[in-house]
Amino acid sequence: MAKNLLSIRIGKKYVKICELQYGANKSTMNVSRILKAKTPEGIISDGFIMDMYAAEVFLSSIIRENNMTATDVIFSISSSKIATKEITTPVMKEKQLNEMIDANASEYFPIYLDDYILTHTVLDNGASKKGDKQMRVLVLAAPKDLIDDYFKIAEKLKLSIQSIDYAGNSAYQMIRKQIGPETSVVVQIQEETTTVNILKDNLLKLQRTIPYGKNLAIETLAKTLNVDEDE
Fold first, then answer.
1. Which pTM value belongs to this model?
2. pLDDT tens digits, one per residue of 132-158
3. In sequence order, what are the residues at sequence separation of 6 or more whose Cβ sits closer than 8 angstroms to the Cβ of residue 109?
């Protein structure tokens, strides 16, 4: 039986919700609807939910008014507080990789690790080139209170979290399916940031986030031309 799933990204200017439908064996996925709504001021700042009650009222109204019945959700988060570090390791199994990352985390991130949650994405498993014995892994450290915000809002919305993803990884998974093996530069101009992705052989070679996005240009033009930002 097909199962619905919501994917939600809460931005400073807009909330984007994608309603997905899995097939019976989860091997296929269809996009049912994509919605975009203006985020009420003061709800979010750098990924953190600042007004939990307002966020609950706003999101529940969108879900209710659009007759969305899904009970599972994936959140995609963009925040300057999420630290990333690309590492190269010998080819190893997942359990060994987890242990190695935990053991070396303090070298990757000069932060108080008790306040952070660690996760990782394998960018290159070492099988792309014959005889390659090295893996490339992107390690991420996200503040626990940032992640807690999304568990709290999911509970208030009566949704079960299936995953919380870093927006940069979400974009990478989409981009790699749309380009060829040649070297490609993909630039994403987002609300508050711009992400530059460089890929080769459908593998991410470099990803950097620049702290300037389209909001700065829009706000500057609106002020200079004395027009509303929406206009």
1. 0.80
2. 688 889 899 999 999 999 999 999 999
3. 83, 85, 116, 141
Query: What span, in angstroms and rounded, lies between the C-alpha atoms of 56 and 77?
Result: 17
The pLDDT, as a whole number, for residue 56 is 96
Question: Sheet harboring 72-77: ordered strands across?
Answer: 29-38, 14-22, 3-10, 72-77, 160-166
Write the CB contacts of 78 (distance below 8 Å, at least 6 apart in sequence). Answer: 9, 11, 47, 166, 167, 168, 190, 192, 193
Joined together, the tokens standing for residue 51 give: 């007004």
Asked if 187 and 195 touch (Cβ cutoff 8 Å), the reply is yes
pLDDT tens-digit readout, 46-60 = 899 999 999 999 999
Measure the CA–CA gap between 61 and 222, rounded to whole angstroms. 29
Query: What are the C-alpha distances in Å from 141 to residues 75, 81, 82, 92, 179?
Result: 16, 9, 6, 21, 28
How does strand 3-10 pair with strand 72-77?
Answer: parallel
Amino acid at 228: D
Do the beta carbons of residue 45 and residue 100 sit within 8 Å?
no
Question: In whole angstroms, what is the distance from residue 201 CA to residue 126 CA?
Answer: 13
Question: By three-state DSSP, how is residue 53 classified?
Answer: helix
